[in-house]
Amino acid sequence: MYVVSVYVSPNRDFAEFCAVLNSLSVFIGPVRDRVVICGDFNAKFLTWGGSTTDRRGSELEGWLAQLDLRVGNIGAVPTCVKPQGSSIVDLTLVFPAFLTHLQDWRVLSEEESLSDHRYLRFSIGADFRVLGGRGYRRYPAWNFKSFDLPSFSAVLDFKSYLFDDTRAVDSMVRWVNDTMVEACDLAARRSGPRPSCTSAHWWCDEVVTVRRACIAALRKWKRALRRRRSVEVTNELQAHYRLARGRLRDEIRKAKAQS
């Protein structure tokens, strides 16, 4: 199975946006039945829950129809929330043969991502099997029943700070693989025998405590919005959440400096 991550900056012009789609077509062609595309295309279209349709959205919709790609997003929960408003610009795309394997798709609207974008979560059905012949490489597997999302997110946040985008493509691929293994090792137990290795230990109690307070503040603010509390109350809770979010950023920055 292949997971493709795509980001097209809103600062890119329309010609560059089209070039990204063309390049993506070439890459996913040979693996169409085994690929999941997770992308922030910064494109708006009514089909996937947008309030309007822009030029990028029309082009992307035509590209999806041409390749017979399907949008796996479910519902109308915004994937991007900014002070100016919310939108659905983060898409999960699969081909029809894979669509039945894509399960439990949802937006984690009450998880703190330290970004305007929300985490998207989905699972791949147990009936999906990776095709391969003899000698197919056995990849590590983890038991995600006790998956620790904060630890996983913290490793990715820390490692991304060290990422060097000047290295060769092969080196980047190895770095991504190693980083994902390290993050999963810290967040969950491995299934089967675990190789002897040293996990990262910079994730500290201080970050855990501040993050819990931040998530609690976020949920209080969201709860007040759902219950349609007064503007004064929701504004106060929003301000409290922003302060908690700032403290979390500072604590993570401090942990990075001391690691």
Describe the model.
The longest helix has 28 residues, at 231-258. The two termini are 34 Å apart. It is globular, with a radius of gyration of 20 Å. It contains seven helices and ten strands. With 259 residues, the protein is α+β, with helices and mostly antiparallel strands. The chain has a four-stranded mixed beta sheet. Strands 4-5 form a two-stranded antiparallel sheet. A two-stranded antiparallel ribbon has the order 7-8. It has helices spanning 14-28, 55-67, 96-99, 149-161, 169-187, 205-226, 231-258, and strands at 2-7, 35-40, 70-71, 80-82, 85-87, 90-94, 102-108, 119-124, 142-143, 189-190. It folds into three domains: 2-132, Deoxyribonuclease I, Chain A, CATH 3.60.10; 149-187; 205-258.
Task: From the structure above, extract its key features.
259 residues, alpha+beta, 4-stranded mixed beta sheet, 7 helices, 16% strand
Helix content: 40-55%
Question: In total, how many domains does the architecture comprise?
Answer: 3
Radius of gyration: 20 Å
The tally of helices reads: 7
What is the beta-strand fraction? Answer: 15-25%
Order of helices and strands: EHEHEEEEHEEEHHEHH
By secondary-structure content and strand pairing, the structural class works out as: alpha+beta
Give the full name of the CATH homologous superfamily of the largest domain. Endonuclease/exonuclease/phosphatase
**CATH class wording of the largest domain:** Alpha Beta
Q: Quick check: average pLDDT?
A: 80
Instruction: Tell me the number of strands.
Output: 10
Q: Strand order, main sheet: write it out.
A: 1-2-6-3
Q: List low-confidence stretches.
A: 131-137, 194-200
Shape: globular
